[in-house]
Every structure is written in structure tokens, then in C-alpha cells.
């Protein structure tokens, strides 16, 4: 059996976890989560973290080791460089156990950084990031995006205003280096992943069916998400701590604060999740070497038969 890594990618709400677990059992694999939100403790339902248990220092999901979930405090930051460092160590350990690393998740930037590489960008500066965050909260996302457009039209054209984290990162890079972020990119980051490096499986859901799943899941997880956000705040964590910047929690907090009704909060989360899923589809479309698995229903998902 080949120990070449396997990557399972798809937009949010696609059922990647279930497929990864089934495959891991079949081929004696271990899973590395490629998710920027599931790394946080205390956030369960709202991040669709796989239900598991800690045993002998490992997080097990249905007896399958599932790495890089439930490991960070809500105040800690996590980025592509940290993911690459941690995933590299874990992947090597999995291979030493004569098992197959299975990368499963929807954070495309992490996958790209691990398998293709990263451009040499300056490290984050907490003071600059805090100032940009304050500007975003005071003036809005469009304000920062227009600010970016004035200094770097190329970066602004590649980053949507809604993706405030990437907008702030681009502005941060400019303020630290004095150079346009686009001028520091080599272009290699945007290349396809060579088939010799990994087997890529793309769960290609019918768009309408995926939207139904997004709506259903949002309605199912909203109340648990509100409880998780409330519990963190009661523990003393700030409403804008890194963990609570995860998709949906801001709206859950706005509901708690009486700024949004339950209906308004759910509708807003659905819209944001749809937009996120669209960006993910665009990102994963670059993988020409991927094996596309067409899925039109939950039954199709459950009947996937991956032969390795």
C-alpha cells in the first residue's frame, strides 16, 4: 500500500469528516485536520468539529487518530505557517507508524502552503493587526478594502472585501515591509499540487443540494453556537478573541447582545457560509489533478467507495 498522502477537499458542509474516517479505517490511515477553526478548544458544534475523545494524548474519532483539533486556547492565533510546522511533524510520525496521512478540510490556504510552499512574507505584528482590527470595527470592511486598493490594486482585486482577515494581512504586510504584498508573491503558491506529492479527492457536490445542507446545518447548530459563545464570554474571553472570529460566532454574539433577532442571525450566517463555500469551490478548482467525486445526495455521500 502506498503511503503517499491523501487530501480530501470540498466546500463547507460537504461531509469531508465522514469520508475521511471511512477511508482511514479502510487503509489504516490517520487524519490531519485542515481547518483553521477546529483547532480551538470549547468550540464544538459551531465549527463542525468531529465528535471524539482524548485518549493517551491523542484525539480519537471512532478510534481513528484525528490530529490538529481541540488543541488551542481561544486567545491563541493560528495561521498557515503554524499549520505547516505542526502538520509536517505529525505527518512524519504517521509515516513512521507505517500509516497513511489523510489531510481533510476546507482551509485551502493551509493545503497550498503545505504541499506547494509559501511566499516569504513578514511575520505578523500584533500591534499593527490590533490597529487594523479597530479600524475594521469602526469603519467597516469596505473601508479597509478601499485602503488596500489605494496601495496595491492587484491584491485588492484578488481579495474580496468580505475576507477581512486577508485584507488586514495584506495591509499589515505593506505597513511592515513598505512593499506591495503582490510584489512579494512568487506565483508558486498558486500552482497546482503535483500528483506525485499527494492523491487529491474532491467531493463535488451539486450546488443546490449543498446550499440545502448549509441551510439545514446552520439551523441545527445555531443554538449550540450561541451557548458556546456565551460560555466562552462567561469564562472571561473577549468577544473578539481569535476563536470567536470563526464563521457564525460574531452573529451569535450579536444575537446575545440583542443586535440581531434569531432569524436575522441565521439568515446572515447562511449568506456568509454560502459566500465561503463559493470561495472554496473557486480555490479547489485549481486542482486539475484531483479526482472529482460527484455527489447529489446524502446517499451518494454514504456510498462513496474509494479504492486505494
Residue-averaged pLDDT, rounded?
A: 92
Strand content: 5-15%
CATH level-3 fold name of the largest domain: Rossmann fold
Pattern of helices and strands: EHEEEEHEHHHHHEHHHEH
Specify the structural class.
alpha/beta
Gyration radius (Cα, Å) is 19 Å
CATH architecture of the largest domain: 3-Layer(aba) Sandwich
CATH homologous group name of the largest domain: P-loop containing nucleotide triphosphate hydrolases
In the sheet with the most strands, the strands line up as 3-4-5-2-6-1-7-8
Count of individual beta strands: 8
**Count of individual domains:** 3
Q: What is the CATH level 1 assignment of the largest domain?
A: Alpha Beta
The proportion of residues forming helix, as a percent range, comes to 40-55%
Number of helical regions = 11
Unreliable spans are none
Major pleated sheet: 8 strands, mixed
Kindly report how far apart the N and C termini lie.
Answer: 8 Å
Amino acid at each position: 500500500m502506498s503511503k503517499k498522502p491523501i487530501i480530501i477537499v470540498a466546500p463547507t458542509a460537504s461531509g469531508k469528516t465522514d469520508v475521511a474516517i471511512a477511508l482511514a479505517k479502510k487503509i489504516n490511515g490517520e487524519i490531519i485536520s485542515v481547518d483553521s477553526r477546529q483547532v480551538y478548544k470549547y468550540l464544538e458544534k459551531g465549527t463542525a468539529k468531529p465528535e471524539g475523545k482524548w485518549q493517551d494524548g491523542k484525539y480519537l474519532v471512532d478510534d481513528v487518530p484525528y490530529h490538529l483539533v481541540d488543541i488551542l486556547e481561544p486567545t491563541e492565533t493560528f495561521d498557515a505557517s503554524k499549520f505547516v510546522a505542526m502538520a509536517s511533524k505529525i505527518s512524519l510520525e504517521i509515516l513512521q507508524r507505517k500509516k497513511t496521512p489523510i489531510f481533510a478540510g476546507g482551509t485551502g490556504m493551509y493545503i497550498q502552503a503545505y504541499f506547494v510552499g509559501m511566499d516569504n512574507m513578514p511575520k505578523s505584528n500584533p500591534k499593527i493587526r490590533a490597529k487594523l482590527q479597530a479600524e475594521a470595527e469602526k469603519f467597516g470592511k469596505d473601508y479597509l478594502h478601499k485602503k488596500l486598493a489605494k496601495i496595491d490594486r492587484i491584491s485588492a482585486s484578488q481579495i474580496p472585501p468580505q475576507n477581512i482577515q486577508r485584507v488586514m494581512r495584506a495591509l499589515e504586510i505593506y505597513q511592515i515591509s513598505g512593499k506591495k504584498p503582490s510584489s512579494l508573491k512568487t506565483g508558486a503558491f498558486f500552482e497546482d499540487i503535483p500528483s506525485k506529492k499527494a492523491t487529491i479527492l474532491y467531493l463535488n457536490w451539486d450546488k443546490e443540494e449543498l446550499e440545502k445542507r448549509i441551510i439545514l446545518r446552520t439551523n441545527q447548530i445555531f443554538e449550540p453556537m450561541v451557548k458556546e459563545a456565551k460560555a466562552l464570554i462567561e469564562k472571561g474571553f473577549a468577544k473578539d478573541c481569535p476563536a470567536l472570529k470563526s464563521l457564525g460566532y460574531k452573529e451569535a454574539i450579536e444575537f446575545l447582545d440583542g443586535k440581531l433577532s434569531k432569524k436575522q442571525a441565521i439568515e446572515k450566517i447562511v449568506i456568509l457560509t454560502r459566500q465561503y463555500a463559493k470561495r472554496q469551490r473557486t480555490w479547489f478548482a485549481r486542482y486539475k489533478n484531483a479526482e472529482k467525486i460527484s455527489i447529489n445526495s446524502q446517499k451518494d455521500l454514504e456510498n462513496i467507495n474509494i479504492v486505494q
